[in-house]
Amino acid sequence: MNRIGYNNFLENAREIVKISQNLCTRERVEMYRNDSLAPTFAEFYTPFGNYLDPNNRWVKKAAMIPWRVVEQEYKKHLSGSTTGKPAKEARLAFAALLIKEELQISDRETVQQICENPYLQYFIGLEGFQTQEPFDASMMVYYRARFPEDSLKRINEAMTLEKAKPAAKEGAEKQEPPPEGVAPGEVSPVEEKRSESAEPENQGQLLVDATCAPADIRYPTDLSLLNEAREKTEKIIDILHKNCAQGSRKPRTYRQRARKEFLAAIKKKRKSTQALRQALRQQLNYVKRNLKSIEQLSQSVSLSVLKKNLYRDLLVISELYRQQKIMYDAKEKRIDDRIVSIWFPHVRPIKRGKASADTEFGAKFHLSLVNGFAFMERSDWNPFHEGIDLIAAIKNYRRRFGFYPKSVHVDKIYRNRENREYCKTHGIRLSGASLGRPPKDPVLRREQKKAARQDERDRIPIEGKFGEGKRRFGWDRIMAKLPQTSLTVISMTLIVMNLGKMMRVSASTRFLCLLRAWITGSQEASQAEKGGKWLDKIPFLREIRLEGSKFTPYRPQASAISI
Prior knowledge:
Blueprint: H1 3-24, H2 57-64, H3 67-75, H4 90-103, H5 107-116, H6 118-123, H7 139-146, H8 149-164, H9 189-197, E1 205-214, H10 222-242, H11 255-266, H12 273-297, H13 308-330, E2 349-351, E3 359-370, E4 373-380, H14 390-401, E5 407-409, H15 417-425, E6 429-430, H16 442-458, H17 460-471, H18 483-521, H19 523-532, H20 539-542, H21 556-559
Parallel strand pairs: 1-5, 5-6
Antiparallel strand pairs: 1-3, 2-3, 3-4
């Protein structure tokens, strides 16, 4: 069957099913197409007469994603209308967003890559290869809106909880130092109470930290912000005066003089405090004059003649002028909810204290890491103290896995008295040195320093996760414009990184299974195993089970489908 005949067959089959449903059930047709009939790997049509590799990364990732959960979250954010064109499938929308963040390309390039790659078309749920675009690039804006941050959190948990859950190990488990206030070799009261009440034993390590994802804005200064506000108010005055009655006098803006004064100040390499305040005062006066002129023009012309973005800019500029005027009069450099961009009024300055950037401008988010899998704990555009969220992160750990972590590895900002008391109450060891003076015994002091150094080493994976997100997946500059879609991009990138972790775990597991099978199958290994069970003494081989883990190399005649 050629491609044209195959397409005609599919179209006729869809029409027959649609007519039979309308005639028999007479039910209202929902404006959403269920993606439960997405083709399997064997049913995917390719017109090239060759094979799709079942070991391709997109084929493997498609099997790891919980598509039922994706569809449930997708349906929650549809409009519910019964008219118009049906919405695209949940699998297509989610997979398109994931492809964009995985490849770090634009919306238009994402559509082009899907058109050219049969593996990507299988990944988004198409029935066969096609050369036409499956959707327009502008639809990516709506797909991001239909997967808010909370929905992506639930999808991420459904995908990774089984892989991330700490497993109880035998014998070879690393011995953790006792919790704070408990001497080595003693049983803490918390352990005694847990054994009496059948409370599950603490397991695993929890790594927690926060970082900032800068938005795509220029570095803001008060002088440049006021100059931009002045230029926008001049544009608004031009539009309002154009809609006034003929013969009306246009308000004066002194735009040429204001521009020269701004350039004269901004071009100076070294600006004295007096010269900077003089330039700020000049720009504040120009913005004040323009806002007053807009208020007078609005009495004769409605502000509805302005476009939505200009009207929004006018509201932002009014608040920006109020903040800058207060800081200028008080000779201060900070104010609550400070606006640092007219285009992005939701962005706030985040003090990080890093060597490369003392202040960053973007969303701050709080992550937890368990066995290499990341979970979003909190995100906000306003600055917050991550130390107060440690208890919530520990509670989320218990909600996800059913028990508390055995140890929590954090930096100094988390080690306040409230967090220490909470961890001590639940038998959790908090990383870092304990409160009080160091012990006089040199042996104990040496052991404490050794444990503190090991705690810092155990925190390295979460710093590496931040580095992976910023260097590989665009966390160093979020290109989305809206506050909700920016958080969607951050959360989707988290899912992409967790998928990569699952792929690496799967590959290493297969290699270890092959290694164990090869060692077990050799004659010398079988004889040694009968005598001393030496194979079970190797920790990383003992943890691998052979049942259900057989690896079959790729053979097109046996495992792939040809046309």
